[in-house]
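Need a sequence for this fold. Nothing fancy.
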């Protein structure tokens, strides 16, 4: 049976929900950062950090809370939006994928905490985000959403080429940052114990 979250863990979950909301709304100050209906955001970066810093369990919980908070109407999704209708959005698959991104990133790092593992785990987490989100988007457009004229599976992936270089760089940066953060004086005591119980 899983233990209850501590007060500080609940605070960290709240912090990452806030960070995800900030990352989601970069496009509000730079509206041109939207390609094919897909906002170019910092959410993948923060989802990876959640898993890499908080561990698989708490990281995934923070992403679940983020998705739930948005679905109940709090404007934490892209363009300061929220609500149950987002469940049927072609891009909602990316929000679901953040849960897997955080969990898998954290799980890999929990096996071995070396710098190259942090980077590899971050890139794998990013890949899951792309694979799940892009496939959800394709099937959403084909099954229930109004697809752009001439929309194909190849076009869905072509849209993702634009944010890909940014996300690769940020994923590597997230891995390096999380590795150094865990070894900092600030995190030495608490985060090591957090990982042992995650």
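Here you go.
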């Amino acid at each position: 049976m899983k233990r209850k979250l501590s007060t500080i863990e609940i605070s960290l979950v709240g912090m990452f929900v806030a960070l995800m909301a900030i990352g989601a709304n970069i496009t509000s100050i730079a509206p041109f950062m939207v390609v094919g209906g897909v906002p170019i955001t910092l959410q993948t970066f923060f989802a990876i950090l959640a898993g890499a810093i908080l561990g698989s369990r708490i990281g995934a919980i923070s992403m679940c809370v983020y998705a739930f908070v948005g679905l109940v109407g709090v404007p934490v999704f892209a363009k300061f939006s929220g609500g149950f209708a987002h469940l049927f959005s072609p891009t909602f698959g990316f929000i679901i994928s953040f849960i897997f991104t955080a969990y898998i990133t954290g799980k890999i790092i929990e096996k071995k905490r070396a710098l190259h593992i942090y980077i590899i785990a971050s890139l794998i987490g990013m890949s899951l985000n792309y694979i799940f989100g892009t496939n959800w988007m394709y099937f959403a457009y084909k099954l229930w959403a109004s697809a752009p004229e001439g929309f194909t599976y190849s076009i869905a992936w072509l849209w993702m080429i634009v944010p890909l270089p940014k996300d690769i760089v940020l994923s590597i940066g997230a891995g390096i940052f999380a590795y150094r953060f865990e070894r900092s004086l600030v995190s030495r005591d608490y985060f090591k114990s957090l990982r042992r119980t995650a």
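For context: The longest helix spans residues 115-143.
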